[in-house]
Design a protein that fits this description.
Blueprint lengths: L1 H44 L5 H12 L12 H39 L10 E4 L4 H12 L9 E5 L12 E5 L5 H6 L7 E4 L9 H15 L4 E5 L15 E4 L1 H14 L3 H8 L7 E6 L10 H10 L3 E7 L2 E3 L12 E6 L5 H8 L1
Parallel strand pairs: 1-2, 1-4, 2-3, 4-5, 5-6
Antiparallel strand pairs: 7-10, 8-9, 8-10
Helix pairs in contact: 1-2, 1-3
Amino acid sequence: MFYSLGRMVRQMRRRKEIGVAVLLGIIVISIMGNTLTFYFFDRVERPEITIWDGLWFSIVSITTIGYGDISSSTLGGRVGTAFFIVLVGLATFTTAIGMAVDWIADSRQKERTGMGKSGLRGHLMIINFPGESRVRAVIKEYRDDVHHGSAEVVIVSDKLLELPFHVDDVSFIRGDPLDEETHERANIARAGQAIILSPSHEDPRSDSLVASIAFVMNNMNPEIDIVAECLDLKHAALFNVSPRVNLVYTLQLANNLLVQEAQDPGVSIVTQAITSNQIEGTLSTTYVESIPTEAKPYVSVAKQLLDSGINLVGVVRDRTAKVSFDGIDLAEGDGLVYVAKTRHSWEALRGLLS
């Protein structure tokens, strides 16, 4: 049944494409036919007429503009205009205009309802729509970073009929996030990053759904960087599909912060500052690409960076956080997590350490 329906849709599209090609062909024949008859007959009485005058006369006539600056004065030229322009050209041209208007309206309707196809590159994909306020907050926070201020965003969800808000450069693809066809329409092959939100903080099955989506996306584009929301630490093993899939334990972070603030008032204020792109001085990560020949202890690295206004707060090694630097040395592949006004490349940090 679905195969037959799909074949019927493809046949309709093919017929429509053929119809458009035929109309364009008739319009071209009408213009060229009128151009040649006008030039052939009217040039006898007016030798100054050129083939370009005939082409101009044909175009302004078939588009119903009719400036009146030039017209046919011979019987043959007028018969040619009556046949090529009035009988054939105008009907074909207005039909083509109508089809163009329908195509534009259809494209806008598909874009509004998420049934279109994205042609973006390097965009951010946001998967699932747990709520308007949350999705808008994620987009705003992402774009508040100086490197992503003009980032284009594609929202993918099967729970919406159309996007409930309008934000510049934010588009919508409606479909099942587990379906490869949905991600193809979102142009995952050209996407730069993806954020997979948990569809519900109350549903214990949310982690398995998010993990399955991450697997599908990584399989389709192994180069895309994915940040997935995980509600329960016990489900972390579900996401071991690629080192490019990173987890954020949203509920645990919120609970930890509540307890920390209760024990040490003021922690939440600083945490908000260093985790937000809206405030100067945020958390950033730079990965070590190459190291000096001699071992360099992290105690020394932290001191040198601090002298340059970069506060090293932790090191990520083998997906494990190290916040105490005693006894560990700089190693290739380490992720340096620091607080600074701007994000620095490894070349820049290495220059500060040399």
